[in-house]
Structures are given as structure tokens and as C-alpha cells.
Amino acid sequence: MVRSPTGFDRRRRDRKHAVVSDFSLTPDIVNEAVRHHWADTPHLCTDIGPRHAMATQVINQENLRPGGFVPGPTMFSMADVVLWYLSFGTVNRIEPMALTSDLSIRFLRPAQGQKLWARADLDKAGRLMVVGTVKIWVDDAPDRLVATAQGTYVMPQR
Question: What's this model's pTM, rounded to 2 decimal places?
Fold first, then answer.
């Protein structure tokens, strides 16, 4: 098994675990497909792989809570979107009908800044479900998390 420099196998496997193709999704492919379905999305995929996805969003300074805090629903939507991107990565294709089955979030500290970031890491992928954990931070401070989330996406049956 060939591993990438990050340690993850970049090849995809079918149900019998035979190698079927190289991982082909890129952030540009994801962003173009998402904009086709959701033209005014504020989210941008910045990295994607078979076991992770990253996204960013410029924070709308006009919609901040008193004190300049990013609203909870903004962070919740960021967690949901990055898990959606992760579901694409696990199957190596855009799957717009993948749906949120469960999502819970814990807010760790107030979020203040210009740009929201999120990274989803795969916990488990099955034939119909993708479970992931999300870390959310502001600006360039990934070591100062503002929220963590865990969620499950259900993949459409084929």
C-alpha cells in the first residue's frame, strides 16, 4: 500500500477493498459543484482528501453579536458544510444528496476575527454513513479552537 506524505492512502477502494482509482477530488472541483447547487454560499473548500476536508468563510462583520462575537449558527453551519465536503471525499465524488443525520456542537470560547476555519476528520465511513469530527477556529489560530462538533452524514442509496 502506497502512502502519501501525510500518511493517508490516497487511493480509493471498492467494497471488496481492491484498489479502483486514485483520489481525484480537488477543492476547485468541490467549490465549482457546490456553487452550481448553492450559488451564494459563503463557504469555500480549501483542502479535501479521503479522510479529511477543510473549509473557510469570511466573517460578515455586519452580522456579529454584541461584543463582536461570531454567532453560533454561523459556526454550526460551518461544521455542517465541512462534514458535507468530507462525505464527498470519502466516496471520491460530489454527492449533493448526502444529508445531515446528526450534528452536535460544543462552543469552547467566543469567536472573534475576520475568517472562520474548520477541519473535519473522518471517524468512520460505512456504505451509507459518514461520521466525522470537526474543529473550528478563527483566523490563523488552529491551536485556539472556538468550537468542536461531531456529525453523521447519510449517503444516498445507489
Answer: 0.85
pLDDT tens series, the chain, 158 aa:
443 333 444 444 444 343 345 899 999 999 999 999 999 999 999 999 999 999 999 998 888 999 999 999 999 999 999 999 999 999 999 999 999 999 999 999 999 999 999 999 999 999 999 999 999 999 989 999 999 999 999 999 87
Please name the residue that has the C-alpha cell 468542536.
148
- The enclosing domain of 134 has a CATH number of 3.10.129.10
Q: What is the DSSP string of 21-72?
A: EE----HHHHHHHHHHH-TT--EEEEEE-SSEEEEEEE--GGGPBTTTBPPH
Q: Position 32: which residue type?
A: E
Give the count of domains, the chain. 1
Cα distances (angstroms) measured from residue 112 to each of 53, 69, 120, 132, 147:
23, 5, 21, 25, 12
Asked if the structure places residue 6 within a domain, the reply is no
List, in order, residues 6 or more apart from 56 with CB less than 8 Å away. Answer: 43, 44, 46, 115, 116, 117, 118
